[in-house]
Amino acid sequence: MKKAIVVYYSYSGNTRKTAEFLKDKITRKFQTDMLELKPSDESKFFLKQCVRAFRKVQADLNQDLILDLKEYDLIALGTPVWAFGMAPAMRGYIDKVKGLAGKKIILFATYGSGVGKDKCLREMAEIVKAKGAEEVRSFLVQQYDVKNANIFEQKANGLV
Ligand SMILES: Cc1cc2nc3c(=O)[nH]c(=O)nc-3n(C[C@H](O)[C@H](O)[C@H](O)COP(=O)(O)O)c2cc1C
Prior knowledge:
Layout lengths: L2 E6 L5 H14 L3 E6 L9 H9 L19 E9 L2 E2 L1 H9 L7 E8 L5 H14 L4 E8 L6 H8 L4
Parallel strand pairs: 1-2, 1-3, 3-5, 5-6
Antiparallel strand pairs: 3-4
């Protein structure tokens, strides 16, 4: 069976919920691993979180990370939108990850107001394409929709 991995960061649970829906969907076709990023240096304060994200800080990920994804056929990367971009945890991961060449990648983000949501995915797409990703698809889920399985299915329709 082909292998997939869903790598995500979630501070307040929204992106985790979306990652779990995605895992359930992918599992129908792939043997699927999950990796939740748990930065050791993330602030609990909104303003500090915004400043770090805006300054493109890469969080410290002092955990057992899978950084070489060459064994996976399908790779999904998810983040909340923070200050118009990805959260520092995803920035730290996407910078270091290897093994994306020739792979199919699904990018996803959850968001609040929506400001910066497209920019967030665009930058992630640029990074994975620069690492050789062959096919990059993406979807976005608004924070109030994350628990709605029907909306998820609409957003993720045709991705896997
Ligand atoms: C520090 C911080 C910055 C945020 N910045 C944005 C933003 O620029 N644009 C936006 O649409 N939502 C923004 N949000 C809202 C989050 O993207 C949204 O609540 C997301 O679903 C949170 O995901 P999580 O529960 O997985 O952490 C921000 C939230 C936080 C905590």
